[in-house]
Amino acid sequence: MEKELGKIKDSLQSCFQNRIENISLYRGIELYIFTAKTDTISVQHPKRKHIMEINYCHLGRIGWKMKGGNQIHLGPGDFSVHTLDTCTESFLYFPTEEYEGLTLCIDLQELSSHPPELLSETGICGEILYEKFCKNGAFASFAGNAQTDSIFSAFYEQPENLKPAYQKLKSLELLLYLGKMEPNQAGRLTEHPSEQIEIIHRVHEHLTQNIGQRITIESLSRQYLINPTTLKEVFKSVYGTSIAAHIKEHRMELAARLLLETDLSLAEIGQRIGYESQSRFSSAFKTYFQMLPKEYRKGSFL
Predict the structure, then answer these.
(1) Which pTM value belongs to this model?
(2) DSSP conformational letter for 188
């Protein structure tokens, strides 16, 4: 068992080049905490039907491109449940090029034969979790809610001397939550065909390469042959915000860099990011950064 999870740890460490922390919680239950700053990772790990993964997105966004062709994305607070035979050869995408999250790897056979003491009388076992969430290669993903937010948030920002206790306690609370949860309840995230995701990536590239232009949903729909409603829905699924909000974020980040790294006038910077007048640019910048562009340039944000 330890040797098997050790192989999984090695494969995960080879994927997440930035940072990975591994903690053994109970017999057959391992916690991995990730930080990644990249756009895509190829995943190769042992195909293990009896090893269940619970993935939680803390910051950023993460997406899986599965062998079957569909893709699923998690944003902050979302979580997924599946076994290692589902994603043994897949690609991880990070649309915002940064990610913080955690994964609980649970040996379902060990959970059934040697459950942690607090679970021993609950009836929660590997077979039940597999049947509920992972049968026939299912990849179950859910939007976070108040209860799961309370569980997962406790894995973070704890005093060092209390972290191990919280991690053990909350891992059991999570299993209790999954034990009573109905997998078909509201809150399941939508999978999208890879073809639609690829279109959204091209749309995103087009928008960011033409940041100074005002481009409408209708023109994008015609250019990329995708229904406007589908375009908006899938874009939000991948990037976590509407097209307008996402592009505004890119515009403001570019404006901030130009203010600090160039001597361009405010009017010139505004024009570069798509604002016809200096006053509109200044107003939008203040709304986003809570200060005027000239104040930002002077370093008032420090």
Answers:
(1) 0.83
(2) B
